[in-house]
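Hey L., structure's done. Input below.
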Amino acid sequence: MNRTGHPDRRVLLTGGLAVATAALTGCSSTNAAPTAAGASPEARPTTPAAAFARLMDGNARWVSGDLQHPDRDPTRRQIVAQTQEPFGSVLACIDSRVPPELLFDTGLGDLYVMRTGGEAIGPVVTGSVEYGPMTSGTPLIVVLGHQRCGAVEAAYKSIRDGKPLPGNLEAIAKALRPAYAQAAREGGADPVETMARAQVKLTAADLRSNRDLAPLVAKHALAVVGAYYSLDTGKVEVLAGAPS
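Output:
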């Protein structure tokens, strides 16, 4: 108090700064999702099983609507500005309804994300998928297909009817030919959905067994999971390769 009985201005300023600092600290993200008051923040997953569990927990929040929106504020931006260490890599479709960061409830610096039509791969895409595991020890790759995939449907009709797609879209159809052949063998009531699932499983198997990633898989430092996203429910279904 000052001599007139009013609070000293310096006390008010100091208190205000303390409150502001506490508020900013409370709102900021750490390297992991927010936790309950008093709990320690989650560490970056370093094993395939832990990384997979983190993603699936996030998807469960997406389905229920109980989102945490982790790692998405200015403090997190500053944390990852100089370096990154994502715990997962996701190869997904370009479809606007399938953003991996949202449907797994993750944020800045959590995932490497590659997106191509129908999860089509080639040397550049494969190299991009390999980047995380081979340079920073990212322990998980997820190949994520989805329900009602327009790229798969276009490729299916093109191959079935023998009518090439225009421009470079034909490269997507060419990349999806093995999935088309597998779907033709498997049959089923909805051949496009069968082909979409086949594309996921074939792509995941190719990545799992390729020359550079296979040694990491063999020593359990990496898992390559094939998964399928439902547009109707928001749920991610595991098709193959879930780590134990």
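Residues 3-7, 9-41 have pLDDT under 50 and may be disordered. Residues 41-240 form a domain with the Beta-carbonic Anhydrase; Chain A fold (CATH 3.40.1050.10).

-- N.
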